[in-house]
Amino acid sequence: MNPMQRNALECQAISEAFLSLHEQDGFTRLPPSSLLHDSVPMSFVMSAGLIQVENDLDKIVAETGGKFAFTQPCFRHFDMKQVGEDPTRLSLFHMSAAFHIGCSKRETVLPRLWRFLTETLGLEKDRLWVTYLDDEEFGRDEASYQCWKTLGVEEGRLVGLDQNHCFWRQRSLGQIASDGKKCGPHTEVFYERPEVSCPSCESVERAIGSCRCGRFVEISNSLFIENYIADDGSLIPADTVFAECVVGLERSAMILQGVSTVYQTSRFREWHQHIGKLLHPPLSIEQKNSLNIAFDHLSAFVKLTNDGAPAPGKGGRKYIMRRLVRDAMNQVQQCGLDTTFLLEVLLKDHHPTALERLQEECVRFNRYVQPINDNARCVNHDGK
Ligand SMILES: [Zn+2]
């Protein structure tokens, strides 16, 4: 695939490519879950995990033979404060995921993933780094290591990391681990962007998965569940093993589109174009960052509203919705823009319900809080 084709790939196209490749290998495509799922009653779906399908797992396994794939929107309210602090952090993002229940063989996951990354997406092999578990307590994930080597990944690009980086353990109990919490090693693929110069990243082993400069971007993670973990930390072999492989769509799109942050990917392009016409002189770096955070939060608000989230208010999901609006408003005001006008420009034509709720919350907010910038206004707004 040549660079021209790569540039054309947006999140939707990456998702479609991932799901089709799995369908060709006998996986059944499932629809995504609503972001409002019973498994997270006080919040929203946070990852492309098994939790959304666990209640129906027996039925799904019977229908799919245990092999299924889907693309899931995910929202992490606990990441909101970190949006804008590095080039790849979003509160709302999308993951394509493939599950194989009853099998944890690396050979059934990693070769397909490698083909997807290097052939379907066309990522350069000499930009890819792979982590695997190499830990004092849990040992070395020899199966993953050997599988990557067989695929042609050079030893120097295989980075062994401890359990803090490459070992997953379940936090709450689910159906298929009823006698303990699931756990297992995972192996991640990172894309290196050498154009980001960073002193901390001279040592790949120390930087990968730790430094947030954006030189190493995690684009994929494959997890192999083979054990439960007991309260005393000992491992108990699982009756039902499984493998999960996920790919981050916005991060992959950022790399394929050759832009330096997820905020510049096509997902936000239309909003940037709308706003770009209204702004002169150009925004400072700080103001651009504020706009990125505002766009992330507003985009999450719209998606959550469309999925049936409640209007902003007190407690649980309502409170999360309120925080999204208020944090976004603060950021918009730091850009010297009028929030009401900005919302009209971005949302009027496509998202009337989200717009109405955002405007109501802005009125409430303005009643109690002095705007950070009293001169906040839109530069080209007629009549202002
Ligand atoms: Zn760095």
Automatic annotation (TrEMBL):
<dbReference type="InterPro" id="IPR002318">
    <property type="entry name" value="Ala-tRNA-lgiase_IIc"/>
</dbReference>
<keyword id="KW-0694">RNA-binding</keyword>
<keyword id="KW-0820">tRNA-binding</keyword>
<comment type="similarity">
    <text>Belongs to the class-II aminoacyl-tRNA synthetase family.</text>
</comment>
<protein>
    <recommendedName>
        <fullName>Alanine--tRNA ligase</fullName>
        <ecNumber>6.1.1.7</ecNumber>
    </recommendedName>
</protein>
<dbReference type="InterPro" id="IPR018165">
    <property type="entry name" value="Ala-tRNA-synth_IIc_core"/>
</dbReference>
<dbReference type="InterPro" id="IPR018162">
    <property type="entry name" value="Ala-tRNA-ligase_IIc_anticod-bd"/>
</dbReference>
<dbReference type="Pfam" id="PF01411">
    <property type="entry name" value="tRNA-synt_2c"/>
</dbReference>
<feature type="domain" description="Alanyl-transfer RNA synthetases family profile">
    <location>
        <begin position="9"/>
        <end position="346"/>
    </location>
</feature>
<keyword id="KW-0547">Nucleotide-binding</keyword>
<keyword id="KW-0030">Aminoacyl-tRNA synthetase</keyword>
<dbReference type="InterPro" id="IPR045864">
    <property type="entry name" value="aa-tRNA-synth_II/BPL/LPL"/>
</dbReference>
<dbReference type="InterPro" id="IPR050058">
    <property type="entry name" value="Ala-tRNA_ligase"/>
</dbReference>
<dbReference type="InterPro" id="IPR018164">
    <property type="entry name" value="Ala-tRNA-synth_IIc_N"/>
</dbReference>
<keyword id="KW-0067">ATP-binding</keyword>
<keyword id="KW-0648">Protein biosynthesis</keyword>
<keyword id="KW-0436">Ligase</keyword>
<dbReference type="GO" id="GO:0016874">
    <property type="term" value="F:ligase activity"/>
</dbReference>
